[in-house]
Amino acid sequence: MGWSFRVHGGIALALSAWVLLSVVLAWLPGESPLAGMTWLVTAGVFLLVGIAAWVRVLLCKADKKMLWLAFRCLPGRLQAVLGALAVAGVLLTLVGASQGDNLQTDGVEDGRYYVYDTTPLHKGRAEVSQSAYEDVREREQRGVLPVFVAVFAVVAGVVLSAGELRRGDARSGSVGAAT
Questions:
Q1: Which residues, in sequence order, are bridge partners of residue 114?
Q2: Quick one: 168 exposed, middle or buried, by C-beta within 10 A (0-12, 13-18, 19+)?
Q3: Which letter does DSSP use for residue 179 in this model?
Q4: Which secondary structure element, helix H or strand E, spans residue 125, and what is its range?
Q5: Which of 173, 138, 144 is nearest to 36 (CA)?
Q6: Which residues contact 96 (CB under 8 A, 6 or more apart)?
Q7: Tens of pLDDT along 80-94?
C-alpha cells in the first residue's frame, strides 16, 4: 500500500483515538482538559478527512465486497483496533443517548450563560450559572462525540482497504495499463 494511504488512514485512526480520549475525559468528574473542544470542530475535521477518503475510494472504483475483502487482508491487530474503536464509539453513543437530557447549550452573552430546555411543557431559554452551563456542555459532548469515534474508525478502515486494493492492482499490473 502506498505511503499516502498509510498517512491518511493513520490520521483518521489517530483522530478516532483522540476523540475517544476526549469522550472518556468528559465522563470523568471535574473539569475536562478538552472542555473547549466542540462537536462542530470535530465535524469540520471529519468533513476534510472523510470527504478525502470517499474520493479515494471512488477513484479506486471498488464496491463494498471488494473493500471488505481488502479489509480482511489488513493485519489482524489493525483490524482489531479499528473494530474496537468502531464498537466503542457505537456503545458510547448509545449510552450517551440513553441519558435523555433535555438541556442544550444556547450560548454566552455578556458574561451570562444560557441553556435551552427542550422539555415538552417547559420549552424555552433559561439563564444558568457557569458551572451548570459547563455541565450541560460536557453532557452534550458525551452524547455527540462518540459518533465521531466510530466514523473516524470506519474512515480509517475504508482508506486502508482502498490502499490494499491499489497495492493489489499494482501487483497484478492493471494500474497504469489503461493509460
A1: 107, 127
A2: middle
A3: -
A4: strand 124-128
A5: 138
A6: 139, 142, 143, 144, 146
A7: 999 999 999 888 888
